[in-house]
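1st attempt posting a full record on here, be nice pls
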Amino acid sequence: MSGITVACQGTFGANSQTACKAAFGDEAGIMFMRSFDAVFTSVENGLCDFGILPIENSTNGSVSAVYDLLRRHDVSIVKAVRIPIRHCLAGIEGADMSDVKRVLSHEQALGQCACYLKKNKLEQEGYPNTATAARYVSEQGDKEIAAICSEDCAKEYGLKIFKRDIQDSDKNYTRFICIKSCDESEELSGGKISIVCSLVNKCGSLCSLLQLLAENGADLTKIESRPIPDTDFEFMFYIDFVGDFDNMSKNGLFEKLRGSLAYYRLLGCYDEYSV
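the predicted structure (as tokens):
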């Protein structure tokens, strides 16, 4: 897809850059943003055509901030891609593993390597992105700090790799979603459907919702709850399911959801790819 611009959080070497290439090809132009919120805003305001964001990892779970931002911004999910994540520990040239006292990386990456970090008694420091952590280590020239990042990222910033494949699981995948500004006139298609909703406060509300989805052939793949700010333990539910969108529409599923829920929004109908 040539001629398009995609917003990614981080900098060169970030896993979001890898996901962008997998989703849109090498010809897509990438604009790096400082935060997840900036990715959403750049898409919503038309600065970028698409945005790409990590939403869950097979080892360390959901990226909560992205779920919260999905509700706050007027965007749709148009595709998703799953990529394998392999982490290495990298520091400056001239340093040895024995020099390292403190490790910098994104909280998700630190969580995905928790066993290795605990075993080696390494201090941890959260950083906005794996690539920005690697860049910082490169710039500081301090033997006592290292970054958790990809091998390509370590090479990008001239870092020495102390140890490869330090993630807790060999089957470590991150799912990225691709977002664009909402267009109600656009025809929806794809095998996966995502919604966000809140329930009417009465007994059996969640059970009724799940039963309605099941009756319409929805195969649930994910349900995530997030607290609603300034409420007394009330929650938003983010639900992913597989099904025939056209048939569900004809059978009135989405109108029934709109009429029976306290809040409802269709986040997207899209295809998901694995790399």
